[in-house]
Every structure is written in C-alpha cells, then in structure tokens.
Design goal:
The complex is a heterodimer of chains A (197) and B (157). With 197 residues, chain A is of the alpha/beta class. Helices cover 39% and strands 17% of the residues of chain A. The chains are: A alpha/beta (197), B mainly alpha (157).
Chain lengths: 197, 157
Amino acid sequence: MKAKFLVPLFLFLLLVGFLGFGLSLNPREVPSPLIDKPAPDFTLARLDNPEQTLGLADMRGQVWLLNVWASWCVACRQEHPVLVALSKRKEVPIVGLNYKEVRGDGTIDMRKVAEQNELPMAIDRARDWLHSHGDPYDVSILDINGRVGIDFGVYGVPETFLIDKKGVIRYKHIGPITPDALRDTILPKVAALKAES
Amino acid sequence: MRRFLLACGLMLLALTGHAQTAAPVAADPVLEERVMALSHKLRCLVCQNQSIAESDADLAVDLRGQVREQLSAGKSEDEIADYMVARYGDFVLYEPPMRASTLLLWLGPIVLAVVGIGVLMVRLARRNKESAPALDDAQRARARALLEEDDNNGTQA
C-alpha cells in the first residue's frame, strides 16, 4: 500500500504512452478497405489515343502499378523523378490514372469551360506536363470526372496502387513515393507478387 | 455616427459569413434535405474534421454529388453509406459501427464510468465507517479552548 502514491504517476505514463503512439501515426493515411480486394473495374480513354480505352481486364496476368496523378498536383512533381527512374528499369508496368485534370485544378473556373472542351483541354494539359517532366507511364488513362478515382477510394493525389496478376489490389501508397519507400517497400512487394503464380 | 453604422453593418456581414454549409444543388428540397442529412454523417477525407456536407473540398463536392445521384436513383441511406465504406473504410462514418475492433471505443467510456463510480462508492463507504475518534473530557476542554482562542483572534483582526 506504500506504493499508492505511484498510481497517478503510472496512469500518467500510460497516458503519455498512448499519446506518444498517437503522435507517431499519420492521420492523413487512412487505411484503404480495398487492400486484398479485387480492383474496381474501369474502362477509360487512353491519353496517347483517346479513341482507344484501357480496362482492368487488359492488365490481367501482370503485376502493375496504378499511379494517380494530375498536372495540377504539386506533390506529384516530387515523386515524378522516382517514377521516371523506375520506368527505365522496366521491372513493373506503370499505368497513370490522370485524375480530374481540368476540374480538379482549383484555379480553373469550370463554369467557363464548355463540356465538350473539357476532354481536349485535359489531353493537352496532361500531354504537355508529361512532355516537360518525362513520361514514366506505359499508358495513362483519363479520369475526367474523378468517378474511377472515387471507386478506388482516392482522396488525395498522388496515390499508388499495387495490383497483382489476378487484378487484386495488394498495396496502396498514399502520398508521393520516396526513393526509400520504393526500394524498401514497393519493389520487394512487386518481386514477391511476380513470383506468385 | 456614420462610423458606428458602418461598424454595425460590418458586424452583420460577419454574421452571415459564419460557418455556412455549402450551397445545396438539387432542385427538389425534400431530396436535398436527405442529401444533406446523410452528408452530415459522412466525414470528408481531405479536411478530416468536417463532414462532406460542410466541406467545400473538391472531393467532398464530388461525394455529395454521389449521395445526391444515388438517392435520386432510389437507393437507401444505408446502401449509400455502405458504398462509401467500401471505398474509404469505416473512417468515413462519424458513427463507427460496433465491431470487435471498435468495442473499446464504444464500451470504454461506460467501463470507465462504472469503475469510477465503484471506486467512489467504496471510498465513501470506508469514510463513513471511520467514526470520529472519541475524546476524553480533558481533550474536549482543550479543543474548546483552542477554538475559542481562534475565535478571539478572528474578532481582533
């Protein structure tokens, strides 16, 4: 009973422990419920040739990355050199999901953009951006209204999904890919998934 | 006087600008009310302390659009909540469902309250049992003397 005075101290330390753990978490990183679930189906126009589409089924049998990007996305510039370097290694195909290229840009007043002009505008802007920053994508597809983004649970750009041969999402990276994250997490996962039958 | 009126005017202006929810869009007011009611229960993932009804973030506007579209297509509130949870996880719900992983969240406060009340009751019962120590006549007289002395000091001050 002599140690009774230690009880508040113990409770305090417990609280500090909880708060310390809380500080180490990033509230921006909301775990995706889509991990280990089949990727949502999509069919979207290709940036290189908008007459043609790319769908989920086209990627079946491959381990691939789906990288959500847009020319207005500032953090995308940060990860872009990492993606360009990755694409040169030819280890894993990268599909770019161009997310709300025109209407996602906060500086554009959508009331002044006619509906039929949005797609050509998106194509011009996206191509220009890839031209000046380098194009790491095997294919880029255009999610003009962000609907496919919602299906993938995208809430911030950039986000990157790692999808396996069966079309199941196996990993999601939120925010810009750093060289460390690529080397220590993403590439080992790619190698492991490629080894799966 | 003019300056006073101007100040009043500015204050009124400030009131109108206070925490307005984003403007409704659907033409049907009954539908819009349902859209907003459901939107208030869904968390915006971009500005995490706002619901998608209050937030003007791009994604919140899109998600409100989804709610509106699906409600007008005849889906129920629960179906739309499920749609959101399937994409963004339980995090989008301001009221998380009862699960093994959320049990502590739901029952924690009740457990704490029960434990707290229990400890309080035990302590009070123990305090009641400790009756005041019996004093003999000499001690009583001394206590009285001390108290009186204290009183006198009080009046002198």
